[in-house]
Amino acid sequence: MGARLRLGRALLGLVAAGAVPDGAAARDAWPSFAAIVRRATPAVVTILLVGRDEEATGPATFQDALRDMTAEGPHGRVLGSGFAITADGDIVTNQHVVQGVERVRVRLQSGDEVDAQLIGADEPTDVALLRVRPPHPLPTLELGDSDSLAAGDWVLALGNPTGVLAAAAAGIVSSKGRLLGAGPADDFLATDALVGPGVSGGPLLDVDGRVVGITTTVAGSAAAASPAFAVPINLAGWVIGQLRDHGRVIRGSIGLSVQPVTPELAWSFGLSRAEGALVTDVREDGPADRAGVQRGDVVVRWDDRPIRRASELAAAVSAAAPGTNVHMTLLRNGEERTVEVAVEEAPPAGQRAPEETEGGASVREWGIHARRLGDAEAKRRGLRPGTGLLVTDVDEQSPADDAGLEPGDVIVQANRQAVHTTADLERALAARPSHALLLVRRGTASIYVEMER
Q1: Are residues 261 and 242 in the same domain?
Q2: Could you give the C-alpha distances from 216 to 124, 204, 323, 358, in angstroms and in order?
Q3: pTM higher than 0.85 for the full model?
Q4: Are residues 307 and 369 in the same domain?
Q5: Is-catalytic flag, 200?
Q6: I need a surface site. Which of 14, 314, 393, 399 has the fewest CB within 10 A?
Q7: Is residue 266 a contact partner of residue 289, using CB atoms and an 8 Å limit?
Q8: Residue 11 lies in a domain
Q9: Is 434 part of the annotated catalytic residue set?
Q10: Exactly one of 90, 122, 126, 206 is catalytic; which is it?
Q11: Is 56 exposed, middle or buried (0-12, 13-18, 19+ CB in 10 A)?
Q12: What are the tens digits of pLDDT across the range 354-385?
């Protein structure tokens, strides 16, 4: 008891001295989002599925029951949220919210429900644009600048998961440029704002009430609130403009694949910093190939824009207009050179799963089991006949396993040397007994893999 009394007196002394804020001071020290919620909520809408097939059966699972609990009114289930960006009826939401849905309605904060037309949707960025004919001008939200955000900045996620009452969740930006496996447009904001089901497609706001992102991915179960990711609004704004003008997104392409430069890769390639985009594959007779770009080059500049991360190059190439010429600066063997590439229109993305086959020789020290790739298999993977070794198995807790090598991968190079046979692989690995750099074909993508022994 005496110790507690002394602690209590000590805390009272700190409060009196101003070292610990009292209740009013604490409220002043933390941001209040009340004004932003009041101002922004009228622009947030609910996206509803029109017509359901569950009338006779009822919910089958707890998750189905939860979704039904969030559905208010006779017109259908809540798919997600959205927000108005023009007074005459342009609504932004997520692509996954409206994917595969023939008809949707939008419930406004006024309670009015209106049919929505899908202007366009973009799967790589998970952005969709709807258009409605509102009975009155819509309240709108101002788009902000996601590039100005920094880790630690406060943000507010808004949504309308019930169709009646808006939900708000505050948090901070935990990181930028998060990769979620979404493809070339993989560049998300991560927040610790706890977002529940039905908030996807709603706005992520900064402390000035401007939209800095579209809440898009909940990292958890469908039944519980979880930290959320968001599409940066600077990327989404460009996509929205493309959808409005063309009904689809027209992206640029120069025919190359890249990956981030890790500290280990920077050491392997003799770079002073772990920055830039490492070229892993160059499409034969594509714009980059015609300009002389090679595997192992590191792109450090796109026109006058520095490239510090691989995702920055992907975004810059995507945003470039097909038919334009762009100067690209590379590092090759420690020397800087500039090439001019002609941007072409990117084809629709496709992905083939790697085949898994058995048999082959073993490079035992590294834990790799591989065999020569047949000509027909090479063609199916987009490789020249006679190129590469197919990984058939990887020993557990081996250097290959630790590096993430997988059965079905095709080893194209080892320590910068082309690999056609298991003997080629043995010789290349023997040249550097404790360290290996592999160029691997995985599906339709090429990646570098670092192994340490």
Answers
A1: no
A2: 12, 10, 32, 40
A3: no
A4: no
A5: yes
A6: 14
A7: no
A8: no
A9: no
A10: 126
A11: exposed
A12: 333 333 444 767 888 888 777 777 777 778 87
Residue 4 included in any domain: no
Q: How many folded domains does the chain comprise? A: 3
Express each pLDDT in 130-167 by its tens digit. Answer: 999 999 999 999 999 998 999 899 999 999 876 666 78
Buried b (16+ CB within 10 A) or exposed e, 406-437: ebbbbbbbbbeeebeebebbeebbeeeeeebb
Task: Name every residue whose Cβ is closer than 8 Å to that of residue 133 and which is 6 or more positions away in sequence.
Answer: 89, 114, 115
Is residue 114 located within the same domain as residue 214?
A: yes
For residue range 273-289, what is the model confidence (pLDDT) as tens digits?
Answer: 899 999 988 888 889 99
302 φ/ψ sector (left φ>0, alpha ψ -120 to 50, else beta)? beta
Q: Catalytic residue at 96?
A: yes
What pLDDT, on a 0 to 100 scale, did the predictor assign at position 317? 92
Q: 433 lies in which domain range? A: 361-452
In the chain, the largest separation of any two C-alpha atoms, in whole Å, equals 83
- Per residue in 13-70, pLDDT (tens digit) is 544 555 545 555 545 556 788 999 999 999 999 999 875 444 333 444 333 433 443 4
Torsion-angle region of 58 (φ positive above 0: left; ψ -120 to 50: alpha; else: beta): left
Of the residues 146, 200, 253, 398, only one is catalytic, namely 200
84 and 221 together in one domain = yes
**What does the alpha-carbon distance between residue 53 and residue 130 come to, in Å, rounded to a whole number?**
24
Q: How far is CA 247 from the centre of its chain?
A: 22
The Cα–Cα gap between 425 and 77 comes to 56
Q: How far apart are CA 374 and CA 370, in angstroms?
A: 12
Catalytic hit among 64, 68, 96, 289: 96
Q: Which positions ≥6 away from 387 have C-beta within 8 Å?
A: 373, 378, 410, 412, 418, 420
Same domain, 53 and 75: yes
- Please tell me the predicted confidence (pLDDT) of residue 185: 53
Other beta carbons within 10 angstroms of residue 103's beta carbon come to 14
Rounded Cα–Cα distance for residues 302 and 266 (Å): 20
Assess contact for 300 and 312: CB atoms under 8 A.
no
